[in-house]
TrEMBL record:
Coiled coil: none annotated. GO terms for molecular function: protein tyrosine phosphatase activity. Keywords: Hydrolase, Protein phosphatase. Residues 3-149 form the Phosphotyrosine protein phosphatase I domain. It comes from Christiangramia gaetbulicola. Belongs to the low molecular weight phosphotyrosine protein phosphatase family. Gene3D superfamilies: 3.40.50.2300. This is protein-tyrosine-phosphatase. PANTHER family: LOW MOLECULAR WEIGHT PHOSPHOTYROSINE PROTEIN PHOSPHATASE, LOW MOLECULAR WEIGHT PROTEIN TYROSINE PHOSPHATASE. The active site is at residues 9, 15, 123. It comes from the Bacteria. It is an enzyme of class 3 (hydrolase). Its EC number is 3.1.3.48.
Length: 155
């Protein structure tokens, strides 16, 4: 059985598509399935933001085949680990959880590199290109740690 990991942000066009692409590049696809979703519905069916696509491309990652989808209650059944990009996403996901088992699956992604500091991956949507680079660097570090834990069985 593959371990199933879901990356969640608000729109599923900027941050979580990058997180999905980055983590996929660091794990064995035969062992780990990675997907992403947004808590909002605006970008269902959309490609990632062109700035996320360009940022990923600079690091050799192609995320153009991703399409936006909305997070749903079924995702608690379908995934083992759910990583929220920020505190607002975290609250929205938690508000849909029904059981303690559901709630235990949900983590703030930057807790992986800044434990107990409650740090958000900032939403880069209304900013410039630098915001996307900044998001990439944070997610690359966090995904490195997630991949390390997946590999040694501690996640
Ligand atoms: P994301 O960024 O949550 O990182 O995908 C956003 C993209 C679009 C919107 C908000 C955040 N929006 O309001 O359309």
């Amino acid at each position: 059985m593959k371990t199933r990991v879901l990356m969640v942000c608000l729109g599923n066009i900027c941050r979580s598509p990058l997180a999905e692409g980055i983590l996929k590049s660091k794990v064995d696809p035969n062992k780990v399935f990675v997907d992403s979703a947004g808590t909002g519905s605006w970008h269902i069916g959309s490609e990632p933001d062109r700035r996320s696509i360009a940022t990923a491309k600079r690091y050799g990652l192609d995320i153009t085949d991703q399409r936006g989808r909305q997070f749903s209650e079924d995702d608690f059944e379908d995934f083992d680990h759910i990583f929220a990009m920020d505190n607002s996403n975290f609250r929205d996901i938690m508000s849909m959880a029904k059981t303690d088992e559901d709630r235990q699956k949900v983590h703030l992604i930057l807790e992986e590199i800044f434990p107990s500091e409650n740090v958000d991956v900032p939403d880069p949507y209304h900013g410039g290109e630098q915001g996307f680079e900044n998001v990439y660097q944070m997610l690359d570090e966090a995904c490195e740690e997630i991949a390390r834990k997946l590999n040694n069985g501690t996640l």
